Q: What sequence folds into this?
């Protein structure tokens, strides 16, 4: 017997789905991945071109507005994507209370590293 | 009473070590391993920026460490991990759009990812030697 459902599939998924916040995580992981492609290629190309540079050349390079912007965008997207990816790894291999602590420490570390990186990049870009 | 407090070793379902490694499974775990490795290298990126922000002395000290043999080997690993994760990630995004999901295509794209990552690693190091090596 076919049961008639008045609820739409979307309504059912939103209300009762097992995914909970899983879809948001999955989707954000993809969006940050796609957003990372361009800054990542820029970063690799920059390293190829400037890895042997002295301090002043490097500073001049990072002070160019496009490079400052891309560096900040790279740091934001990179650590966002890293936090989402590492979360899955931790959830798969670490269990019980250790899992919760690992997740908290990992997230704090990602936020802190992104903050330190952005502040450092801005200090070079805007500093005297 | 002891039997109630000690945990019996429960049988495990067949685990990864009994399966023959295949391109699909190896690339799957490689994407995860390179992701974790690149997270560690992201810490190096932040240290590098922080060193550069604190002054020329710290910057040149870090350049020396990166320029050393262990530093260069780590950087070579990082380059390959970077390209493998980038190419593998794009492959995943293509799959997520429900394309190229036939077994034949999966193997073709898998080998493409491996070869492209190796080629891009070699090319970027040669380019780097060509550009930075002469300055």
A:
């Amino acid at each position: 017997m076919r049961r008639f459902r008045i609820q739409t599939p979307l309504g059912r998924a939103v209300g009762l789905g097992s995914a909970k916040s899983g879809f948001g995580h999955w989707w954000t992981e993809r969006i940050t991945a796609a957003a990372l492609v361009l800054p990542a290629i820029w970063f690799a190309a920059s390293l190829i071109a400037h890895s042997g540079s002295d301090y002043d050349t490097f500073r001049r390079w990072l002070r160019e507005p496009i490079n400052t912007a891309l560096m900040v965008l790279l740091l934001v997207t990179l650590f966002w994507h890293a936090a989402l990816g590492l979360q899955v790894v931790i959830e798969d291999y670490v269990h019980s209370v250790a899992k919760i602590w690992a997740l908290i420490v990992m997230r704090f570390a990602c936020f802190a590293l992104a903050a330190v990186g952005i502040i450092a990049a801005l200090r070079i870009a805007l500093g005297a | 009473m002891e039997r109630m407090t000690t945990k019996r070793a429960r049988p495990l379902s067949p685990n990864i070590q009994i399966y023959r490694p295949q391109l699909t499974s190896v690339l799957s775990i490689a994407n995860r391993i390179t992701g974790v490795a690149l997270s560690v290298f992201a810490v190096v990126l932040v240290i590098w920026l922080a060193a550069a922000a604190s002054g020329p002395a710290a910057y040149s000290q870090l350049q020396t460490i990166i320029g050393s043999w262990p530093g260069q080997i780590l950087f070579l690993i990082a380059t390959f991990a970077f390209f493998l994760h980038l190419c593998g990630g794009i492959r995943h995004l293509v799959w997520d759009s429900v394309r190229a999901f036939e077994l034949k295509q999966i193997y073709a794209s898998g080998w493409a990812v491996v070869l492209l990552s190796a080629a891009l690693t070699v090319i970027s190091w040669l380019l780097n030697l060509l550009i930075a090596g002469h300055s």
User: Anything to note?
Assistant: Helices of chain A lie at 9-16, 22-50, 55-63, 65-93, 96-126. The mean pLDDT of chain A is 90. Chain A touches chain B through 37 residues (CB under 8 Å).
